[in-house]
Write a structure and sequence with these properties.
The chain has 9 helices and no strands. It is mainly alpha-helical. α5 crosses α6 and α7 packs across α8. The longest helix is centred in the N-terminal third of the chain and has 38 residues.
Length: about 170
Amino acid sequence: MPIYTQLCGYTGVIRHFKKDNMKRIATLILFVFVTTQIHAQETNYQKNLKLASDLFIAKSVLPDSVLLKLVPDSYEEFVLLYGTTYPNNKMQNTGFFNSVTKRVFDKVIIEKNEQFYLPSLQLASFADGEFGEGFVDNLKVIIELDKNKFCTSVKGKEYALHNPIRYYCEKNCE
């Protein structure tokens, strides 16, 4: 076989190899870029949590609007809030988590602030682990304040399908 034919054959293989690899590399670069952009974008919850953390560290009073937005809508958001107690978090030794959650419950129990009623029930729905008992204790107090209001308020709420809210619905509501 003439050397030219061999070279052209190899060149074709090399060209094909380069095209496949270029497609793979381009796909990989696009994937990394998109993934980075998704992770780089802070959610509204993360932005509010950062704002609340900064205000807390500065010893400023958290406005009700910020406090309300700290009540998680999902387990993922709750993990972010509870994550402020983790050793690698700047808020770990500040008491932020306990202070914020206590304030949400106190807004209902002590201040009778209606704006916090449903959010406090939603927060109580995340009761679990080391802080769970405190959340349930607050939930019991809220229920004792007005059982009818509790029963009416949780009807149709997604978090009423899960404990501890479900348990207290079954126990107190018809």
